[in-house]
Amino acid sequence: MGSNVLKSSIEKATFTIIFQVLFRCISFILNAYIIRTVGQDVLGIMNVRLLLLESTILFLSQEPIFKACLADTKSQNWAQIVNQVWLSIPLCICISTVLVYVWINLLSTVEHAHLPQYKIGCYAMAVSCIIEQVTQVMVLVSQSYCFVKLKVMLDTIYIISRTIIFVYFVHNNPSFALNAFSIAQVSSSIVLLLLYVGFFTWYISALTEFKRKGNSKAAIFSDMLDFPFTSVKDFLPGVMANQ
Q1: pTM assigned to the model
Q2: Would you list the domain boundaries of the chain?
Q3: What's the CA angle centered on 125, arms 14 and 35, to 5 degrees?
Q4: Collapsing DSSP states into helix, strand and coil, what is residue 242?
Q5: 55-58 long-range contacts, Cβ below 8 Å, gap at least 24?
Q6: CA–CA gap between residue 95 and residue 74 (Å, rounded)
Q7: What pLDDT digit, counting tens, does each position of 124-171 carry?
Q8: Is residue 57 classed as helix, strand or coil in its secondary structure?
Q9: How many CA atoms lie within 13 A of 37 on its CB side?
């Protein structure tokens, strides 16, 4: 892979800063809307309880395997890397089961009026984490092959879609706020997965056509002749031939 790593690093830093600023602005506006519409108790449950559960599950199930696989991409044995990344899904299921039980039964209880929706929210966080784990092979590939703008764009769409879905349901039924947050979380995770699948379906097809004809001047295909994936199915475990 002959991608310009220095240029990609600069672009990544730039787009990350832009994304973080956008994310903070959206979060501020959303939090202000929640406080105004449903109160600070619901905001506390969402930001402290549910999002903490999500970040804990993702950190424990994703970071060790992802970091190890990212370091191993230099070996270019993508069949093994793909299989290793998929191990994070059963790991995520096990960790989610334990942590959801802890969040519901062992931590201090929330107000009785919010308890049913809070339980649903805990399960929704676990489901969204599992869905997000499915995208990790594609995230790793995009990071290894310097698709800098892709992750920033898809993460932005993910945040915006989650916000729009949440605000839509809360606007129509403020008492439905925690369930709305759960629906928004799972729905946006599905959207993110579909976007990654859609992009790589298009990209692999277009790259194959480029390799066959070689008449495209698009920068996205330059220095990508060593791209090892020939189908989206290659992102599934056990599909690629081991090297």
Answers
A1: 0.85
A2: 5-235
A3: 75
A4: coil
A5: 56/99, 57/92, 57/95, 57/96, 57/99, 57/125, 57/126, 57/129, 58/92, 58/129, 58/132
A6: 29
A7: 999 999 999 999 999 988 888 878 778 888 888 898 899 889 989 998
A8: helix
A9: 20
